[in-house]
Amino acid sequence: MAGNLLHINDVHKAFGDVRVLGGVSLRLDAGETVALTGESGSGKSTLLHLAGGLDRPETGTITVQGTDISTQDDATRAETRRASVGLIFQQFNLVPSLSVAANIALQARMAGRHDADFAGSLAERLGLADLLSRYPEQLSGGQQQRVAIARALAGRPALILADEPTGNLDEETGDTVLSLLLDLVAETGAGLLMVTHSPRLAERLSRRIHLSRGQLA
Amino acid sequence: MLYTALSTLSSHWRRRPGQFLMLALGLALATALWSGVQAINTEARAAYDRAAATLGQDQLSRLERADGRPVPIAEFIALRQAGYLVSPVISGELRDSNGRLRILGTDPLTAPMEAQTPALGSEFDLLDFFTAPGLLLVTQDTANGDLPAGLPPLRIADGIPPAAAITDISPAARLLGPSDPSYLLVAPPQPFGLPPIDTATDLTLRPPEGGNDIARLTDSFHLNLTAFGLLSFAVGLFIVNAAIGLAFEQRRATVRTLRALGAPLRTVLTALSLELLIIALIAGLIGIVLGYIIAAALMPGVAGTLRGLYGADIEGVLQFDPIWAMSALAITLLGASAAAIQALIQTARMPLLAPALPRAWAQASGRTIRWQALAAATLFATSLALAVFGTGLVMAFATLAALLLGAALALPAVFTATLKLIRPKNAFAEWIVADTRQQIPGLSLALMALLLALSANIGVSTMVGSFRVTFLGWLDQRLASELYVTARTPEEAAALMAALEPDVDAILPMVSFQTRLYDRPADIFGIVEHPTYAAGWPLLSSAENPWQTLAAGEGALVNEQTARRENLSIGDSLPVAGGLPIVGIYSDYGNPNGQAILSLNRLLETYPGTQSRRFAIRVDPDRAPELATRLRDEFGLPTDGVINQAQVKAFSVDVFEQTFRVTGALNVLTLGVAGIALLTSFLTLANLRLPQLAPLWAIGTSRAALARIEMFRSLALAALTFALALPTGLLLAWILLAFVNVEAFGWRLPMRLFPAEWFNLFALALLAAALAALAPTHRLARKAPARHTRNFAQAR
Fold first, then answer.
1. For the whole model, what pTM was predicted?
2. What is the pLDDT of residues A47-61, one digit of tens each?
3. Which of A55, A78, A91 sits opposite B262 (nearest CB)?
4. Among B3, B249, B254, B261, the residue to mutate for chain A (most A Cβ within 10 A)
């Protein structure tokens, strides 16, 4: 299916007795940016984790670039993630012992697609050029989030999954960071699925879907 | 990808070089102490093998008299005339104030091929070897050592045992005094048609010394060293385990990130294993070098110990053996793997979506502590059962191991229970107690290491101290005579006795000869009846009137080690002088050989020809120095021909001190390693504890006050560990004295207590804890407020 980057079909997920997702389906095409909103505990992060292959659904299928990852084993899903998915976490999840430059290059190196020039230009665009030799603990929250975005984009993944990427930032910094993210996604042609609580930010994406009690509203 | 994962994970160490240093140091120290001990053991065993191979003793049978006395030359001639291929050997020791040397006189013309040492080749003029004054073949080390005066020329040769010389039989006889051969070597193929050689003579045919008496005798010492090495290795592994465990906790988030970014679990585990392998290899190599240095430094002490305790000569120099180095490296890798296995398993089981917040490392739950307590109780029961029912040296060490391990495992439970008993009145003290309880799991490994080191220290120093006090008391009693005189000839001895008779209280001849008792080397002494013996020789057990029975020639005394080894008791018959009942058993500390005492008359009747050149003199102690000078002046006796009591005691004490120098050194090293383990834990916990301390700071506790609390807590934990180590160490000492000593040396010592030493050790433990806590405490006191506020900024 041309242009169909992510296809989630009737996915169910429960943690013990707690049903988190009950038959969720959605599609994301290349170049499309989708905001996933919903109240706390509605299953947004779980859905994002399933889309990134960090976890497996109980039933339903998830395909990334035409490959069904819902039945893949752990190692194969890791390979898919490495090759096709860029993850941006709310907590940044930078490696504290690596410099900013090494953090940005980390996933691209693992995928065998490290392009020093591209990584350099990303750092430049994100205002990190002067911080490349610093370590995460020496950065502010906004700077750390920008490093996390650069890391997610450096390997030119087809799919970007972002879990409240501006949740820890003030409004102004959050706006700036999101603008950069959207610009870069547009330039690389990737698809973006972004979890956010903010209706204001959600409006800036091309499509908005709302999750409530484990189902799309 | 593996490279990226490896470099990402190992970047942790680049950012924390101190932590890396601790890990490498822990592994290197563990390897060093273990491999150092192994190097010593390997070297000593090689020396025993070389000694056993001298003159083909490991391959050739020998003929000797059952009573251990020289073989009459007529017997040798008769056997040769009958066609048997036998060759005489004269063996004995030369000793004077300059040094000592074992002489082995061989007859190259009749010696079997196996007894022709490589030294007897064509490297030197054979004529010099056979003709007066002869040649002594010695190793370079022996030649460089302290040797008796008046020796023939020395020639350096390989393959000669340490502190020994091989020479022709004629110079040997000249040096050792006219003597018949000590024994005859028997060529393996005897001429065809002759009856078996043991049917042609009354001499006893002894098979080749394949097993090596000395090696068997010294097994206990080497087992002792090995146990110490193992203890040090285990303590070192505590550091490694702590460092790896901490690194795992600190990198938990990194591992999650790597996996989230697409690194398969297998790659992460491979990278972690590779990283460990590289660190273990580097640390292992450093450890081998350190081990070699430690072993080389301890080697002279070990040589002294082996000579003092067992009469075994080894070189005091260490050779490098690649096999030893490889095995040391292998044990390092095994040890590192054992220490890391828990962290690797946790990594493998860690869910990808687990919370990324770092937790306190190795946070044992209450259930773990209960399991540890249960395991401790089982080990204590095992130790008790082994102490009651076990026999043999290995069982004795197993008893020790179970006790020590049990005590270590019981520690967290004891701490937790103790802290539960404390019910503070104010909120702040309540927080301190609760926080300390929370820290126990994180600190328990280091505190266990400290407990092991302190217990071992108390145990070993109590044993050595008990030995020292008992030994010195025993020396005072045994060396009751004021002077000990050695004449150069029996005639001179007779002249000396005649001259001394009117001026002294008593002359006590010291007649002895070497023989074999129960198939082991032994000395038989003959003594005259005198109150000195009855008053000065404490008997461990005796029949009624033992000294009178002995004087009447109707009984014998035997030393403790022979009695224990052969399970002899009062009234049993001792196979000396045709068989004499045992009337007393006496302690004979430090003597590896058998010993028996009978009346001088009975000795001379049974073994005619035994001559006396030594005697002890009882005289007013104030007159002893003057009498010694007179004897030297009038009879021209050499300085060491007249020895006063103080000299003998000083010499004996010197031998004693040297004997336990190695143990002392290992003891200190183990304590040092435990100190480092403690430092590692305090340093690492200090970083992880910031989030717990930040709220205290925020609600109004100054950084300095927090630092003081941390220091107080470290000292309190060390004090509590010592309180547990004391009874454990005393139990250890009791097992060492009551079981290990008896199994290893054949004698038992009374246990003495040394509270002053405990106090010193207690102070040392507090000092170690204070030093270990100093750096983290200092850092805490100086920590910028921003570091504390960051804990709130990142808290979600």
1. 0.62
2. 998 999 888 899 999
3. A78
4. B261
B-chain residues within 8 Å CB-CB of A106? 4, 8, 258, 261
> What are the tens digits of pLDDT across the range A8-34?
999 999 888 888 899 999 999 988 999
A100 vs B: CB within 8 A = no
Please list the residues that pair with A33 across neighbouring strands: A192
The CATH number of whichever domain residue A180 belongs to comes to 3.40.50.300
Please tell me which of the candidates A82, A135, A141 has its beta carbon nearest to residue B262: A82
**β-pair partners for B522:** B515, B594
A196 DSSP assignment: -
ipTM surpasses 0.95: no
Q: Which two tokens stand for residue B125?
A: 């003029």
- Residues of A with Cβ-Cβ distance to B265 under 8 angstroms: 74-75, 78
Compute CA B635 distance to the chain's CA centroid, rounded to the nearest angstrom. Answer: 44
Asked if A75 reaches chain B (Cβ–Cβ under 8 Å), the answer is: yes
d(CA B589, CA B750): 12
- φ, ψ for residue B94, nearest 5 deg: -100, 130
B598's enclosing H/E stretch is strand B594-599
Picking from A87, A94, A97, A137 by the largest number of B CB atoms within 10 A of its own CB, the best residue to mutate is: A97
Residues B772 and B679 sit within 8 Å (Cβ to Cβ):
yes
Q: Please, are residues A72 and A147 in contact by the beta-carbon 8 Å criterion?
A: no
Total count of domains within chain A: 1
> pLDDT for B258-287, tens place per residue?
998 888 999 999 999 999 999 889 989 998
Task: Tell me how close the Cα of B783 comes to any Cα of chain A, in angstroms.
Answer: 15
Domain assignments of chain B as residue spans, ordered by start = 1-53+218-359, 59-208, 483-619
Domain carrying residue A34? 4-216
**What does the pLDDT average to over B738-755?**
77
Q: Angle at CA B410, nearest 5°, toward B409 and B412?
A: 90
Instruction: Answer yes or no: are the C-beta atoms of B511 and B555 closer than 8 Å.
Output: no
